[in-house]
């Protein structure tokens, strides 16, 4: 915070997020939302908590009632800090890691059920089975409903303040990516490149990477892609792909760039050029009123036109992003049950086409907001012009 200009008022932003969640809750006919996912707890309460790998949705929870009152269920390690530094949280109750059956039951008896009171229909985003059992045994009158879909709707469209925070996350992610690119040279390990990038992430105040496993893959490790960094030595002529991103103020940025170590081959240029134009086609197609299917078709058309229509990675082409690193809606999801979603101004997506053929794999990725006349890139890292044919 500074005294010479107005910046994002994060407290007002948090209040607007809560109002969106309340509206979505009321539309779904819920009396309350009880959320446990890290991103949903952060969205409602502003809690930036210690994250233990593999324990998401087991550490902290937040109960938001339809009247706007809130109870935060926090790990014992967070309670004192919440009381000292988060004055907007008036009701905070300690809970254990919600995993051991006896501790879960105790937490329900002493913290969760007293906070629920006589609430009837409650939206839940995620529960361990011990919590499901506790609801059934200790609160048989409570009706559980899908609260995750409600939170997805509340988080779907970002306002101007959220987009500004995402631009800040992108600026850090761009520096992370540039640091990684600068570290690429023959004889350097993929994990060394990731290590240099992570130093920049933390030096600039990033909270964490977009991925728990920073993705640096070179040469044959991109065909097919090995989606983590290893001790492989980067060789002369390798394409090196970097996907690390950043989180800042609770919002994620997702950026991926491929560069060549040395001089490119014609085949590398052909694949890279197809992916590049696929990404640019996605940007043009990301205008309000189009659908996620329209964006996927635009990307695939560029691959088909350049002879790579059958060579896309068997994964979606893009995903929603915001307080979740990877969230609905999806672009180009080929699995059963994929939904067609109309794009709305302020939605944010990470578009990440990946084409691989034997010996060559390329992905390029940007974080993009839906606009009235086309996508608005929030990330702006440069591309490797040595690999572009047109």
Task: Please explain how this structure is put together.
The chain is of the alpha+beta class and 390 residues long. The protein folds into 2 domains: 10-155, Creatine Amidinohydrolase, Chain A, domain 1, CATH 3.40.350.10; 160-387, Creatinase/methionine aminopeptidase superfamily (Creatine Amidinohydrolase, Alpha-Beta Complex), CATH 3.90.230.10. Helix content is 36%, strand content 19%. The protein has 10 helices and 18 strands. A 6-stranded mixed sheet has the order 4-3-2-1-5-6, with helices on both faces. Helix 9 runs antiparallel to helix 10 (292-305). It starts with 9 loop residues before the first helix and ends in a 13-residue tail after the last strand. The mean pLDDT is 96.
Overview features:
single chain; 390 residues; Creatine Amidinohydrolase, Chain A, domain 1; Creatine Amidinohydrolase; 5-stranded antiparallel beta sheet; 19% strand
Topology (SSEs and partners):
Blueprint: H1 10-27, E1 32-35, H2 38-45, E2 61-65, E3 70-75, H3 76-85, E4 92-95, H4 101-116, E5 121-124, H5 129-138, E6 143-146, H6 148-156, H7 160-182, H8 190-203, E7 215-218, E8 239-243, E9 246-248, E10 251-253, E11 256-260, H9 266-285, H10 292-305, E12 318-320, E13 327-331, E14 348-351, E15 354-357, E16 360-363, E17 366-369, E18 376-377
Parallel strand pairs: 1-5, 3-4, 5-6
Antiparallel strand pairs: 1-2, 2-3, 7-8, 8-11, 9-10, 12-13, 12-14, 14-17, 15-16, 17-18
Helix pairs in contact: 1-6, 4-5, 7-8, 9-10
């Amino acid at each position: 915070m500074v005294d010479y200009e107005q910046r994002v008022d994060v407290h007002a932003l948090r209040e607007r997020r809560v109002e969106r969640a309340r509206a979505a809750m009321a539309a779904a006919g819920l009396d309350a939302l009880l959320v446990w996912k890290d991103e949903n707890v952060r969205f409602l309460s502003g809690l930036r908590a210690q994250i233990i790998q593999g324990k998401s949705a087991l550490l902290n929870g937040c109960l938001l009632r339809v009247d706007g009152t809130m109870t935060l269920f926090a790990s014992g390690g967070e309670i004192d800090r919440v009381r000292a530094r988060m004055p907007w949280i008036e009701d905070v109750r300690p809970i254990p890691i919600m995993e051991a059956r006896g501790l879960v039951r105790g937490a329900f008896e002493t913290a969760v059920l007293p906070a629920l009171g006589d609430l009837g229909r409650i939206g839940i985003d995620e529960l361990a089975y011990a919590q499901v059992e506790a609801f059934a045994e200790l609160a048989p009158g409570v009706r559980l409903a899908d609260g995750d879909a409600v939170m997805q709707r509340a988080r779907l469209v970002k306002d101007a303040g959220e987009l500004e925070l995402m631009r800040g996350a992108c600026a850090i992610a761009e520096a992370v990516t540039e640091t990684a690119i600068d570290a690429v040279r023959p004889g350097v390990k993929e994990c060394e490149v990731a290590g240099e990038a992570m130093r920049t992430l933390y030096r600039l105040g990033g909270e964490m990477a977009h991925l728990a496993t920073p993705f640096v893959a070179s040469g044959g490790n991109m065909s097919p892609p090995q989606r983590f960094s290893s001790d492989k030595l980067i060789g002369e002529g390798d394409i090196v792909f970097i996907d690390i991103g950043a989180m800042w103020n609770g919002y994620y940025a997702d950026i991926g760039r491929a560069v060549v170590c040395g001089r490119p081959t014609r085949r590398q240029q052909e694949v890279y050029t197809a992916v590049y134009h696929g990404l640019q086609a996605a940007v043009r197609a990301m205008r309000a009123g189009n659908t996620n299917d329209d964006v996927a078709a635009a990307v695939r058309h560029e691959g088909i036109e350049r002879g790579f229509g059958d060579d896309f990675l068997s994964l979606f082409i893009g995903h929603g992003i915001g307080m979740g690193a990877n969230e609905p809606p999806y672009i180009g999801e080929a699995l059963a049950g994929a939904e067609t979603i109309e794009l709305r101004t302020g939605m944010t997506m990470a578009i990440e086409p990946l084409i691989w053929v034997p010996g060559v794999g390329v992905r390029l990725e940007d974080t993009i907001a839906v606009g009235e006349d086309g996508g608005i890139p929030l990330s702006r890292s440069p591309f490797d012009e040595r690999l572009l044919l047109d």
